[in-house]
From TrEMBL:
Organism of this sequence: Corallococcus exercitus
Protein name (record): OmpA family protein
GO cellular component terms given for this protein: cell outer membrane
Record has Membrane as a keyword: yes
Main location: membrane
Length: 173
């Protein structure tokens, strides 16, 4: 295994742990003052964390499908990516992970690299539309997570998962 493959493999392993970590809303709760007795009866006013979670819940995206052996964004993907970019720009606490996938054709190493290129092309497009690069992470699953084993064209895709950004603590600055 050459150095490039080793670096790619280690990068994928490192990113896999990051992609699966769920947002921890309890960290924000630890620094939020408890509501007063008069606030507890006011059900109409949501807590700040509720607003953030509702904003995150409103984010959704359909997969971007790619042609065989390609990481070039298909023209039909631009409308969906523009919608995602606008939604992310409107929600400053939201982050996204773009996961690249492939069909079963090709070697494992090739498919991991192709999935990485697919996710990276989606990331680059979102950055070009004004989303801060630090809010977009990428990962490749290659052929390991097929959407449909009987329809390879559905496996050549990039998928999105959204989460809340970890907030810096005032004492950590």
């Amino acid at each position: 295994m050459n150095r490039t493959h080793l670096f790619l493999l280690l990068s994928v392993i490192g990113l896999t742990g990051c992609a699966r970590r769920a947002a921890n809303p309890s960290t924000a709760d630890a620094h939020t003052p408890a509501p007063s007795v008069s606030d507890r009866g006011n059900a109409a006013k949501p807590a700040p964390d509720d607003d953030a979670e509702q904003a995150l819940a409103a984010l959704s995206a359909t997969p971007i499908y790619f042609p065989l052996d390609s990481s070039l964004l298909p023209p039909e993907a631009t409308d969906e990516l523009a919608r995602i970019a606008q939604a992310l720009r409107q929600r400053g606490l939201a982050k996204v992970t773009v996961a690249g996938h492939t069909c079963e054709l090709g070697t494992t190493e090739y498919n991991i690299a192709l999935g990485q290129r697919r996710a990276a092309s989606v990331r680059a497009y979102l950055v070009n539309l004004g989303v801060e690069p630090g809010r977009i992470s990428v990962i490749s699953y290659g052929e390991e997570r097929p959407a449909d084993v009987n329809a390879p064209e559905k496996n050549r895709r990039a998928e999105f998962s959204f989460r809340l950004a970890e907030q810096a603590h005032a004492g950590d600055l």
